[in-house]
Amino acid sequence: PHSFQGSPIVLITAGLMAIAFFGFGGLI
C-alpha cells in the first residue's frame, strides 16, 4: 500500500532526529 511506502522515510527521519538530539545532548 501507499502508506507502507512512506513509512521508511518517516523512520529514517525520526532516527536522524534522535541521533542529532543525543549528539547535541552529549556536546552540551
Automatic annotation (TrEMBL):
Keywords: Membrane, Transmembrane, Transmembrane helix. It comes from the Bacteria. The chain crosses the membrane at residues 6-27. This is Electron transport complex subunit RsxA. The lineage of its organism: Bacteria, Bacillati, Bacillota, Clostridia, Lachnospirales.
